[in-house]
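Attaching the record inline, Q. Sequence:
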Amino acid sequence: MIDPTFLSANELAGLIQAREISSVELLKHYLKRVDEHNPDLNAIVVDIRDEALIDAQKADEALADGRSFGPLHGVPMTVKESYNVTGTPTTWGNPAWKDNIADTDAEAVTRLKRAGAVVFGKTNVPLMLADFQSYNDIYGTCNNPFDRARGPGGSSGGSAAALAAGLTGLEIGSDIGGSIRNPAHYCGVFGHKPTWNLLWMKGHSPPGDIRSHSDISVIGPLARGAQDLATCIRLLAGPDEIMARGYRLDLPDLAGKTLADLKVAVWSDDELAPVSREVRLRVENVATAFKDAGAQVDMDARPDLTAQLSDDTYRNLLQATMSSRMPDADYESLKKYVAKLDPDDTSTGAQVKRAQIASFKEWKRNDEARSHLRWKWHEFFKTYDVLITPIMATAAFPHDQRKFGDRTISVDNAQRPYFEQVFWAGLTGVSYLPSTVIPTGLNEQGLPIGVQLVGPEFDDLKLIEIAALLERAGFSFTPPPAYS
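Structure, as predicted:
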């Protein structure tokens, strides 16, 4: 039988449907790898294998009776720790929430289980889902399977690491500042940040918070194959129960188009957030693949907006949203701190703190600026089908658990501000645009590099289909040698 370790979720489901492997056998295969490899990676931090084995047995019994639960029938998977899964802690890496035990599944988890997925664990995150690395005082540090001295990204770092190391069949994460996309890039897997509010976020929120969505933030899939992303979007997308009274989902697809039929824009670097030469070249390599396939490629096309305005708007809205997750006492302390700042202090730190306690009037001013950005992108995508950009400045960097203000990123031997590189995630995030990260292979150090594909709002399936075409052209997942 073919080794199932690094197959896509759709391929795993096909093996189960063809009776080439049972769900129980497949789950035990991954559990054996978890027991062998997870101690070195610390990617999977919550183990619910006993319940999963029961679910896998039910999947096998159903198939024996000629019944299928759905497209993920019997496929073992894990989910990011920040999702509620009944009977498990949902802490977001925050020690104050270590006793927060979920009594129901998140809506996304419910839908995946309903489609046949067998959830057997939860994966590591940074404190409050707010870092490009994944470590916290509850679960410890998650390592990158391509180099354990480096991080796997964040905040869905455990998700990407578990997938890349062949410990699970599928994953779902979340993204407000690249938290699906940068781990996909650092670990060489596929990741999709959906159009904002396309997927119902119920059950992915701080304790006691029942909001169905949060500004900028989305949930979405990570996988070893592009088509797995589409499977998840079809399962998870759609209005919540209130909106469903009047809204129906009707996402467009490529309608049979090939790469040759597409108009492609390329934004390979920017002075606001310079990327390394090797990252820029990978963006250009993907552009060349489009060109070689017959697509029209424009290396200079830009929407009618300034990168600075987009970045400023994103950062202001991001900080306000992130601070809304703070405990009340911490927020009140922050307000007192800001009140004592020198009015002439325009340092980055001061600007961040002020944005964190922005008034509604200030927030609304930025929201209005965002609306203008969205319409500029809407006009841009009337001409272009897809935009190619970097997602991070470099390949995975060594673990760095110093205070945020002490961290920098070395970009071609130049030290750059740590959070500067959030520019590339925010470029699309602030304007609600969907984006898909595809792997482009390993660099000379054996580290993956990903590239971001961007499209207009609600073109999620089209983007993923483009990613699948590029996957067939060679931009595919490469297993880490130490885990192959």
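Residues 260 and 294 are 4 Å apart (CA to CA). The chain is about 35% helix and 15% strand.

More tomorrow.
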